[in-house]
Amino acid sequence: MTLRLSTVILPYRRWHEGGRTTWQRAEQLGFHGAFTYDHLSWRSFRDGPWFGAVPTLTAAAAVTDRLRLGTLVTSPNFRHPVTLAKELISLDDISGGRITLGIGAGGTGYDATALGQDPWTPRERADRFGEFVPLLDRLLTEDAVSYEGDFYSAHEARNIPGCVQRPRLPFAVAATGPRGLRLAARYGQAWVTTGDPKLYENGTPEQSVQAIRRQAEKLAAACAEIGRDASAMDKILLTGFTPDRGRPLQSLDAFVDFAGRHQELGFTEIVIHWPIPDSDFAAEDKVFEQIAMEAPAQLG
Fold it and tell me: Is the pTM here over 0.85, yes or no?
């Protein structure tokens, strides 16, 4: 199976001071897709510029023609399914049907408290996610939706004319736990993982590959429970969070070796971060562009 290569562009640059040209360059380099994070702020970037995901993707849609666009990932931390659905339908229309929604349960970062609430526990996040995804699925596929749940409500919410992509834009569900994997199996057109976070500090690349293999096996089991063939589902690895860290972007050969090991696990798409100087995502621009232009052919 051909391995697709995509990038994630963090929304920290003003649109007219490098933001626009970065998204256009991603298309010129031949990336399959370009994603951005959907946060209010994030880690070391908290006290610097950071722009909203949906307006950024809208602008990117207007200056590109082929590139798939999306979030990696959106979460319930500050999103409501009713308002999110309206934005996604609009974005899918503006892009001509090029949007993929990466969606996850969220975490304990700044997004978790920015609206004044206490951070949710892992169980609370899973409970909300379990309601958020099915409701969003309905909102994106039905003209009118009414719903009363434990966490979310919709009263005759209208979403006409719906998505350009039918029956709706694809979900790429980020999950590693049993409840999230069941949601991915039922509602996801793709599954997303960043690996096992427990291995980031002291694990080895070999341990990471084995952990991701186990995650993929659990996804396959969740798919089998509902009679779905997991091999037909796209599998996306968002890089930068495994023990390999930035090493795969040090050379073309290093990346091809890294990507090939994950391609063997059934991954169909690898996502690499656009280089950001003086950050965890620092990389040589020339090497990054060489990987973008040459690695897919070597991995095909």
Answer: yes
